Amino acid sequence: MGETSNGRIDEEWLKSVTYEDLKDFIKSLRDRINQEECENDIFRRFLQRIEAKVGVSQQVIHESDLKTQNCARKRSKSPCSTVERTSKLSWEDKLQVAQFEHDEFKQEMEKAEVVMNKVIDDLRAGISELDIRHEDQKKHSADFEKSVVKEGYIDRTKCVASEKYIRFSEERMKQRETILEKIRLNTATLRSHLRKCKGQLRQKEEIGEVLHVVDFEQLKIENSQYLEKIEEKNRQIQSLKAVAARTLHVVNTLKMKIHELQREQRRQETEINQRQEICKRAKNEMIVVKEELKNEKKFKKRFQTHVDSFHVPSIMDFVQLKTEERQICRQETIHARKFKIAEMALIRHKKLWTQVRRSNLMGEV
User: Fold this and answer.
1) Same domain, 225 and 207
2) At 134, is the secondary structure helix, strand, or coil?
3) How far apart are CA 46 and CA 99, in angstroms?
4) What pTM does this model have?
5) Residue 65, domain member (yes or no)
6) Which family does it belong to (predicted)?
7) Separation of alpha carbons 292 and 286, rounded Å
8) Which of 29, 98, 183, 306 is most buried, with most CB under 10 Å away?
């Protein structure tokens, strides 16, 4: 695209090219330049690594480790074309170099990560130790302030009692000895565990050295069998997971139904309690009504007995009784008039008697 065989740009193509094509061409050239620079950087670092390991020159490395091939380029514009032979890496060589650099870089990153993790662990351990020491110092200062300065201060002598300080120091030393004993026991336990792990590792290495090809083949067969079992177990686990999902769905549905039934049960229990209260009140009212009915029956029975024993008189007797009643009423009226007349006569006689007595009294005087 616009380049001749010697790598130069064709002038005719440059005159006839458009602006957009020229931009695309420049962009492709820049991409190729960046790619070549990246490859050169990788090759340079690869050569430096090889020279550092083997200690030979760049020419010897090219001749011994890398595969080379010769390619001829013809110059189209020159009348007497010459064949130029250059050493050029194939794609397999480039891939091998890139893979080597990738592995080396990965190993360096792993080593750096191990170193950094170790440094981080050391720093964390140091920070933890400093925190523990700081907390210990704070606690020690607070205990000293409480036990010695405050409780041991004597107002009479204006100083701290030495017995308090000595007792506090002895208790502090005992605590330190107890902590040291615990740390010593923990260290001994860790050392024994480390020796045990080293022995197991050494035993595994010895067993690994004794193993032969047949043992490895047997291990491969067992490994394949175990892999098949693992796949079968995984399939079983998947099926069990599906069953568990369905079961969980059914359980959730049943739980919802149970909640609904519980709400319905509580509603029905409330309704039953209300109806029981109504039934209880109805029973009490029935007892009262039965008592009233019993009393009414007794009253009815007495009334019926009275009605049965009642005899209506005849008409003549009734007329005679009415006549006697009228006569009695007439006599009563007559006697009442006579009584009033007698009362008036009595009043008149009383007045006369009063006048007579007054006149007699006046005569005696």
Assistant:
1) no
2) helix
3) 11
4) 0.33
5) no
6) Belongs to the CFAP263 family.
7) 10
8) 98
